[in-house]
């Protein structure tokens, strides 16, 4: 994945987070900041994961539903990129 693709994916993920939590401001949150302690509650995280699946046409298996896997923007972007690569998806 190029840095441009990674940046686009980060932007897309940030837009989804903003749609789930209107207070989320990607300009104020570092990509490695722990989202659950800063902005998302557990129910919002579940809604966000559902939207991730829909937006990126990926499936998140139950065994991947580990909070730490989705705790930062960096981890979310890496996970989505890996799922897309595994399924041959992507932009």
From TrEMBL:
Gene3D superfamilies: ACP-like (1.10.1200.10). It comes from Streptomyces asoensis. It holds the Pfam family PP-binding. Residues 7-84 form the Carrier domain. PROSITE patterns: CARRIER. This is Carrier domain-containing protein. Signal peptide: none annotated. Keywords: Fatty acid biosynthesis, Fatty acid metabolism, Lipid biosynthesis, Lipid metabolism, Phosphopantetheine, Phosphoprotein. InterPro entries: ACP (IPR003231), ACP-like_sf (IPR036736), PP-bd_ACP (IPR009081). Coiled coil: none annotated.
């Amino acid at each position: 994945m190029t840095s441009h693709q990674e940046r686009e994916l980060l932007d897309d993920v940030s837009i989804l987070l903003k749609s789930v939590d209107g207070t989320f401001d990607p300009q104020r949150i570092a990509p490695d900041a722990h989202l659950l302690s800063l902005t998302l509650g557990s129910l919002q995280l579940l809604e966000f994961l559902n939207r991730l699946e829909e937006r990126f046409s990926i499936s998140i298996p139950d065994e991947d539903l580990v909070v730490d896997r989705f705790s930062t923007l960096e981890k979310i972007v890496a996970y989505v990129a890996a799922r897309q690569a595994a399924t041959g998806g992507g932009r």
